[in-house]
Amino acid sequence: MTDFSRFDARHYPTLPVRDGYEAWAETYEATVLDLMDLRLLERLTTVEWPAMRRAADLACGTGRGGVWLKAHGVAAVDGIDLTPGMLKRAAAKGVYDRLVEGDVAATGLPGGGYDLVTQLLADEHLADLAPVYREAARLAAPGGRFVLVGYHPWFLMSGVPTHFDRAPGEPVAVESYVHLFADHVRCAHAAGWRLAELEEGLVDDAWIAAKPKWAERRDRPVSFAFVWTR
Questions:
Q1: Is the pTM of this model over 0.85?
Q2: Residue 138 phi, psi (nearest 5)
Q3: What's the domain range around 119?
Q4: How far is the C-alpha of 148 from the C-alpha of 119, rounded, in Å?
Q5: 110-129 pLDDT, tens per residue?
Q6: How many structural domains does the chain have?
Q7: Residue 181 belongs to domain with CATH number
Q8: Cα(42)–Cα(203) distance, rounded to whole angstroms?
Q9: Which residues pair with 114 in a beta bridge?
Q10: How far apart are CA 188 and CA 178, in angstroms?
């Protein structure tokens, strides 16, 4: 783990994670593109989504991931998030069986009860990856999968933080940390996970159509997806 401040090229005011996402909740879905995370889920080949009867969605946010899981055949989804404003929007989607406000590293959800555990676009806000890998292992049923989609460390190390406009013309960042893939592997192995699949998303035509200024970053990695199995 490395604090993002070592790479920060923009020096936006930085908010703690809970405060940042509470402020972002209203505009989050207009800001985060499906290209970042949901497109990577579409590419995964080692998860039979309809066979995943029950999922735990860690850092569920506004529920974008839960909607995707239900649409792809996952029968039941529970969610947990740190931020009340995000959970309010997740609840409004009507796809979660249970929503909990709490810590992804200590969810309080029942152990061994989930065929699938997911976490989308949250790992960069964790100072330490080990607790969430251990919690995912506790939650997973035998043979379960842990799908973790994240903001690529290359993009963070190039100086671009997780950020949004708190008000027009007022960009702010959310507290972040850089985790190399080696950090993920080390923590996953220590928790009993083994890698089944890794997918990386690059800045391509679709990204540049949405964000023309990103043309200078064409073919650079912007996100990733791990599939871990026990």
A1: yes
A2: -65, -40
A3: 2-229
A4: 5
A5: 999 999 999 999 999 999 99
A6: 1
A7: 3.40.50.150
A8: 17
A9: 140
A10: 16
